[in-house]
Amino acid sequence: MLVGMPPPQTPPDRPLPPELSPATSHGYNCRCVARHFGLDPAPYGEVPACSLSENKYRKLLMEAAKVQDQAKRLAALRNVDGAHRKYARMREIARKLDRTDLDLAAVSDLAHVCYSAGDLRNARQCAEAVLQVFKVSTAAIVHFGQYAEVRMIEGSREVAERVLISLATEEGDVAEARELIAGQRRRAAFRKEAGPEQYPPELLDVHGSDEMELRIFDVRVQIAAGDLAGARAALEEIMAALEAMAEIDEVRERAIQQQAMARAERARIRHAGGEDADARADLLRLSAQHAGAPVAAKADIGLAEARALAGDFPGAVAVIVAARDELAAAGLTGDVAEASHALGCLLLMAGEVGQARDQFEHAKTIRTANGDVPGLRLVDTALARCAAAEGDWATADDYATRARESARASGDWSDYLHTDFVAATIGFARGEDLRALLDLVLPLTLAAAEYRFEFSSPPARTAWAREIAAPTMGLALALLAQLKEPRLAAELIERTCAVGAYTGVEGPSLDLTGTLPSLEVLPSTEDDRLPLAALGSVTSSLPLRLAPPPALRWSPSSPMELDRWHRLATERYRLTRLAAETVETWPAAQPGRETFLLRFADAGHTFLTWRTTEDLDTVHTHPLDFALVGTARQYLDAASPTPHESESVADAVRRSLSEDAFGSLAGEQRLARVLALNLLPADLVERLRSAAAGGNRPLLRVQPSPSLAGVPWGLLALPDRRADHVLDSKIGTCFDSDERVLDIADVSLLAPAGIPRRPPAADGPPVYLLDPRIPGQSAFGDLGSVLGKQDATSPLIRHLDARLAGGPVLPAAARGLDLVRRTDTDRRLLTSLLSEPCSRLVFVGHVSRVRDEYGAQTALHLSCSADLPGTAEPIGSHRPYTAADLALSEVDTMPARVALIGCASASDYGLAEPFGVLLAAVAAGAGLVAATVWALPTSAAVPDADPMAELVIAVDTALAGEDPVSELNAWQRSRLARWRENPEPAASPVFWAPLTCLDATDDGKTWVR
Question: Does the first or last residue of the chain, that is N or C, have fewer Cβ atoms within 10 Å of its Cβ?
Answer without folding.
Answer: N
